[in-house]
Amino acid sequence: MPVQSFHLAKHQRARVWSGEYPDAPLGSGPxxxxxxxxxxxxxxxxKTVAIEWLVPLGGYSMYALLGGTIRPQPDVVTLQVVTxxxxxxxxxxxxxxxxxxxGLPEEFAPSALEGMRSAAQSxxxxxxxxxxxxxAAFTETGSSNLVFKVLGRAVVHLLLTPGTxxxxxxxxxxxxxxxxxxx
Length: 183
Hints:
Number of strands: 9
Largest sheet: 9 strands, mixed
Helix content: 10-25%
Shape: globular
Oligomer: single chain
Order of helices and strands: EEEEEEEEHEHH
Structural class: alpha+beta
Low-confidence stretches: 179-183
Strand content: 25-35%
Number of helices: 3
């Protein structure tokens, strides 16, 4: 499926890729991970999702891109995020004016993993799965732990949810409100 573009509240914009990644180098650095017991006897369906999000905040903008894949596996859910000790290459994003770089800086990885864990734990009847977030982009001034936590939660939610997201689902997932997102 091609990329979907969304115009969200307060001039926020997002692009979502379902079934594929944007043309980009994948992370190959150290991996941070966690595992949870699966709560369902079935296994997840293989899927790929990436989300790019821009949040204007007056004089600057928050920005991040995070992508992941899910593959079936029995009895356990493994969550992994690949970090990049250094930027991989420039990313020509159409969402923002700041220079974006491919890779996930190590300082943002724990927050991305925390968001991933939150989404997995809130999913009823969690199927056995291996979730790997190995695509990321950031800007030097606009990326933060908060934006990667929100994207970690949103990516895992979309990976665990059948179908293609619509405007309202993306808007509910991509919010800076601490209590927001799917429950």
